[in-house]
Amino acid sequence: MSNDDDLVISGGTAVEIADSVRALVDRGELAPGQSLPSVRALAEQLQVNRNTAVAAYRNLARSGVVVSQGRAGTRVAQRQAVAQEGFAAAGSLRDVGTGNPDPRLIPDLAPALAAAAGRPVLYGEPVIDRDLEQWARDWMTPDAPGNPADVRLTLTSGAVDAVERLLAQALMRDDAVALEDPCFLASIHIARLGGYRAVPVPVDAEGMTVEGLRSALEQGVRAVVCTPRAQNPTGASLSEQRAAQLREVLDEHPYVLVIQDDYYSYLSQRPFHSIIGPGHRRWALLRSVSKFVGPDMCLAVTATDPDTAGRLAQRLSPGTTWVSHLLQRITHAVMRDPDSLALIGRAGAHYAERNASFAARLTALGLPVEAGDGMSLWVPVPAPAREVAERLMRRGWLVRTGYDFRLAPEAGSSRHLRLTVHDLSDEDAGALAADVADAARDAA
């Protein structure tokens, strides 16, 4: 590995200098975290104007190759490890941080698979199956803003795919996007990979905060991603009053893209309240079937304004232009089956009841918790979450800490755990609650 003084950076223009640094990174001569020469030193070394060196580093930062740290200089970007939803190397530990649905409460797909068989679908055919489109329109249009005739539907391979493509058609690298803090893991990944500047908007018991959104808009965000119900990880859902307050703030920014990720939809025990007013120009409401038809059913419906739909279609056009019609037909068959719908209804009630029961257990043990909506429970603890998690590992439990869900985990400690408890027996739930309470007291 080279020292800073040994680096052979070349070039006479900003583009040439940036290409030279990228080549050094690609060859491993510049390692992640290694510092680069100062702007002044680089300009003197290459005999170029200081502004040329500044432009080269700016281009590299926008491409995600380097990170500018102000007076601390410029360094090669680190390859950060990112947490994955639903995955943990649990080993012999009991994993209560997965966020997964209960497989016993997912409808049997066998009858739907048989019903989905039919003639082959060829290139050039409509991208949305006719029967699914009518069902999806009935599902989405009542909650979409404005004139129902102006609502456009797009299918993507799940909610994460939809958010990624929606942001890609609206943002450029280094653009700012408002994200909830704490935040859904996939949204954190999308912002990092896209090179967007994530502006945190705090979340409380009623959802995204008004002052937080106002501050983000004042910082020039070009898009907002909001979870109206069962916010992951907190379980918060927008109240009617909070949604109205957020709409009022957004009324002054009609061209900011507002994405509402209502991923929990059919399972939610809370009413849907929109933050998008009827006059907003750039908006998207998306709903996935993953939480109730199964994570392997990669299908989400996105309702948008016509302009956003056109831009989204352009983002989809270079590759496969449709979600498999087999998946569409299976989804339609499941969502039209009375027994499947009844099971989905029982699933939503089950998750809510188990979360409420576990919250009551913790509260009785001196650790007050309020159950929100969603698959998991957001548990405040009186000590740094990592210290509590370490003590729980010694007791045989693997949990998620709030650090995973923070946009800037290095900014401060987290005092929350996210627990998935809906599949625990009463005996196991009692044991976990006692261990959480004991670990929290020991760490405090």
UniProtKB/TrEMBL annotation:
SUPFAM superfamilies: PLP-dependent transferases (SSF53383), Winged helix' DNA-binding domain (SSF46785)
Keywords carried by this UniProt record: Aminotransferase, DNA-binding, Pyridoxal phosphate, Transcription, Transcription regulation, Transferase
InterPro entries recorded: Aminotransferase_I/II_large (IPR004839), HTH_trans_reg/aminotransferase (IPR051446), PyrdxlP-dep_Trfase (IPR015424), PyrdxlP-dep_Trfase_major (IPR015421), Tscrpt_reg_HTH_GntR (IPR000524), WH-like_DNA-bd_sf (IPR036388), WH_DNA-bd_sf (IPR036390)
One Pfam family of this chain: Aminotran_1_2
Segments forming domain HTH gntR-type: 11-79
Gene3D superfamilies per record: Type I PLP-dependent aspartate aminotransferase-like (Major domain), Winged helix-like DNA-binding domain superfamily/Winged helix DNA-binding domain
GO molecular function, one term: transaminase activity
Membership in a protein family: In the C-terminal section; belongs to the class-I pyridoxal-phosphate-dependent aminotransferase family.
Name of the protein: Aminotransferase class I/II-fold pyridoxal phosphate-dependent enzyme
Source lineage: Bacteria, Bacillati, Actinomycetota, Actinomycetes, Micrococcales
